Amino acid sequence: xxxxxxxxxxxxxxTICSQLxxxxxxxxxxxxxHGFTGAAFHQRCDNHSPTVSVGFNASGYMxxxxxxxxxxxxxxxxxxxxxxxxxxxxxxxxxxxxTGPANAVRMIANSGPYFGEALILVYGSKAEVHSNPGNYxxxxxxxxxxxxxxxxxxxxxxxxxxxxxxMIWKSEIYKPTVSSVSQVRVLLIGAVGAGKSSFFxxxxxxxxxxxxxxxxxxxxxxxxxxxxxxxxxxxxREGKPLPIVLCDTMGLExxxxxxxxxxxxxxxxKGHLPDRYQFNPSAPxxxxxxxxxxxxxxxxxxxxxAYVIDAWIPQLVLLTKVDEACPLVSTDVRNVYKxxxxxxxxxxxxxxxxxxxxxxxxxxxxxxxxxxxxxxxxLLLSAVNQMLRFADNYFDDITEEQSLTL
Length: 406
Known about the structure:
Blueprint: H1 10-17, E1 23-30, H2 31-34, H3 38-45, E2 51-57, E3 62-67, E4 77-78, E5 84-89, E6 92-97, E7 105-106, E8 114-115, E9 119-121, E10 129-131, H4 141-145, E11 151-161, E12 184-190, H5 196-208, E13 227-234, E14 241-248, H6 262-270, E15 277-278, E16 304-308, E17 316-319, H7 322-325, H8 327-331, H9 340-353, E18 360-362, H10 374-405
Parallel strand pairs: 12-14, 12-16, 16-17, 17-18
Antiparallel strand pairs: 1-11, 2-3, 2-11, 3-5, 4-7, 5-6, 8-9, 9-10, 13-14, 13-15
Helix pairs in contact: 5-10
Pfam families: TLD
Domain TLDc: 1-160
Protein name: Interferon-induced protein 44-like
């Protein structure tokens, strides 16, 4: 088969991409190679999205359309409020936004890209264009394609997001930098329903090799977690403890006498709280409480605080449910750092909480799945890795303070 070379110049591709954000174009279908048929187009392009379709004619016009929706052969119209048609006037791109979003794209088996009833490329499996301005898109036909409806070429590109944060999709081995501490203790804090317990269950699932539900998690207006729990992770059911402990707490609530008490947070950070301590929002922990650690060592204290969504003076923020927030991430979790929407949310969280973007880490917890997803595992483990790095910073400070007192 012939090599696929794009008819669009690099400058023209950059011009199109400038309309879509931080993306690049990947050529999927070229009619002169694959055939001017609906069947060839659908074989190459179905289930790919977003896409840019471009028609070329002998009069020198380059024109087409963009849709975020994946192509199919359902015969139905598909809603897309971001769809648009375009043509090149020299190096300038003229854009014609969709005027009837409910009918933006139609999925017809016997044709190529089908934008409403306004512009159809490879119409009826022929090297032809169907043009009917005013049907869900408004444009001037002479301006669009010079009224030359014979195609010399048709190309369809998938729009691929460029990662705005690098991500190493593999796990790493960790060991605390202080000899007196065998396990880093990470405190999970956040509002009710933020996903603290679900995050532990998801991390635990990664190391157990199957989806687990050790910590109580679910949807409720009040905290399902009522005890302070220190969860030690193991590599497999009979495996050795890993060098990290995730500490789960009650959720934070706005009303007085509900949720985690501020004084209890201070006791947790200092290492006073015993495992399985029963929280009482109206009566914080005191020194006479059974199991109270009166002289906690470094190994008993919290070495890193991970705030899940809302908190104050955070060290690390876990942005959960990213798959529900963005369809691109829902399709493939590896798109998390290609999603412009997720980046915007992370920037908003960063601004509201006063933390750098590097301290905001997106994750997808296991909630409905019965089996593990390696890419989801790696995203979760990258969050754990950040926690361990923050703990190392804490240990560095402790070591420096100790050296100054000697």
